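hi! just following up on the protien thing from before. the input was this:
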Amino acid sequence: MPDNLIPNNEEIRLKKLYQYEILDTNSETDFDTIALMAAEIFGTKKAFVTFVDKGRVFVKASSSRIEVDHISRAYGLCSLSIMEEDLTIFHDTHNFPELMKNPYIAREGGVRFYAAAQIRTSDGFALGTVCVLDAEPRTEVTAHQSRMLQLLSRMVMEKLETRLVNRKIVRAYDDRLHRLAHDMKNPVTSISLYAQLLGSREMSNEKVFAMAAKIENSSKGIEKKLNNLLTDARSENSIIELIHEPVIITDLLLQMQQAFELSLAAKNQTLIINNDLSVLIYADKDRILDVLDNLLSNAMKYSYEGAVITINTSFTADELIVEFKDEGLGLSEEDKQKLFLKFAKLSAIPTAHEKSYGLGLFIVKMLVESHKGRVWAESRGKNLGSSFFISLPIFKQ
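and the predicted 3d structure came back as:
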């Protein structure tokens, strides 16, 4: 029994926990089902999905009805469990005198048997547990039960990741709709005023034609904004349901190169692809192509006419790395802090004054992370070019 129930990485652990926005949320079927499955596997009436906050243990899901949704961290066995690297199992809590100070254990009908698996992030931070408990002690926990409890904890983590991505997408939609409503306000008002003028007085044919042209222009502006919204929605919505298959990166790079041939020629830019790899990644082909397209488009947008853009590929034992290197406007230190945020406005202005809404890199980050990959950028400073990197897990049979 440790003297201190606060992990050494507590500050970072809590930041990780808060990112998932799970605390104080209402019941959700997915988590409730996992708690019920844990209870079924162990043959107990009580099983929980919990998250350990700064001073409390929040109960997200329970296999049976409970009166409260949190208890003090000092009395939660889950607080002890997140300190461990492996399963936490008490066959009989009454065999541990130090636990008898806990009112949930010492009272009549209290906790005698307890088993928990940590809900752990990919970088090793324990956020909470999937746990089962009983008022009667037990002499044995089978290897099958232990393994299933660990699998359930991983399922919770997967649900958290999916839930977070979906929330990001919804917020992106909300922000985009607010911007769209703002952008459409003026053309809609103009159309209304032109219609009122046309219906309220007689005008010469020349004036009627002029107003009709203005109405048409305003309508086309609205149509264009709606089309842009739908295009962005298609790019992001696909992250919810990915269709994974073995994909050769060479095929995707070739497809991307062909798609941008005319655009590169329009800015007199040259694309060089240094790739001799035949490694497979297990990915949604269309979504990874979206990532590559966004990164190349970004490199072209912030590079001058006549610039050279280079794509380099490499790999480690576990991941494929693709670099998009440009000779463009580069990144300031302030820019680096904003990268991959939704609607981020960087200091650089596209060299041909192309439109930029700050969504491309945000979409790239979501799509890459949904494939369990990473994305980052490097730059020596303003006007010194940039390199954007993505890494994706290599498919292993």
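The chain has two domains: 10-165, 241-397.
Residues 236-240 have pLDDT under 50 and may be disordered.
cheers
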